[in-house]
Amino acid sequence: MTIEDVAEKADAWSEAIKKIIKAITAAGVATATAIGALLMWWPFGSDPEPEIPPLLQGTGYGAQCSQLYNTIDHNWTEQQWTVWEKLKRDLDC
Questions:
Q1: Using CA atoms, how far apart are residues 61 and 93, in angstroms rounded to an integer?
Q2: Are 32 and 65 in contact (CB under 8 A)?
């Protein structure tokens, strides 16, 4: 083997190693990009959006509350008043 043959083989090996390194680098970049995309779209136990309470909560101005207030009979028994008050609480009037 001459020095020229050794130099040619070294150049060939050098080129082959460069191509392998480029291929590995491209595969690494593609893998990192795919993982990044998955992480970006993956739900990480995000808190649910808080429920916004109604503006007129508990004011008694709703249609159901109005109907409930219209049913009042001042001659009711204690048991009837208890039922009415429970309905009032349930409707949040």
A1: 8
A2: no
Residue 17: band (very low, low, confident or very high) from pLDDT cuts 50, 70, 90: very high
* Buried-exposed string 25-61: b where 16+ CB fall within 10 A, e elsewhere: eeeeeeeeeeeeeeeeeeeeeeeeeeeeeeeeeeeee
Q: Which residue has the tokens 């159901």?
A: 64
Among residues 43, 42, 87, 53, which one has the least CA distance to residue 67? 87
> Rounded CA gap, 9 and 61, in Å?
92
Maximum distance among all alpha carbons in the chain?
122
pLDDT tens, 32-87?
A: 999 998 888 877 766 677 777 666 555 556 777 878 888 887 888 889 889 888 98
Q: Determine contact, residues 58/88, Cβ cutoff 8 Å.
A: no
